[in-house]
């Protein structure tokens, strides 16, 4: 694995219910990619190949708009090592899971 990202999608909508609905659609898309991911309270972490993850970031924005948001802001964290060896989600979090 050469990359991992964390993405927080913040759709511009009028209600908390709409925010949750749109974020759920974005997470469903991420799940449909078949990549390893983990949903957290503030962001979703995904691991895979760099180019694939960059396309996922793009699609998350488009899905939020197609789902009804008038705009979207996202916060992205990227760990990238072209030669591989990026720490995986499980390596980072396993000892903290309960």
From TrEMBL:
Residues 6-96 form the Thiamine-binding protein domain. Transmembrane segments: none annotated. InterPro entries: MTH1187/YkoF-like, Thiamine_BP, UPF0045_domain. It comes from the Bacteria. Belongs to the UPF0045 family. This is MTH1187 family thiamine-binding protein. It comes from Enterococcus eurekensis. The lineage of its organism: Bacteria, Bacillati, Bacillota, Bacilli, Lactobacillales.
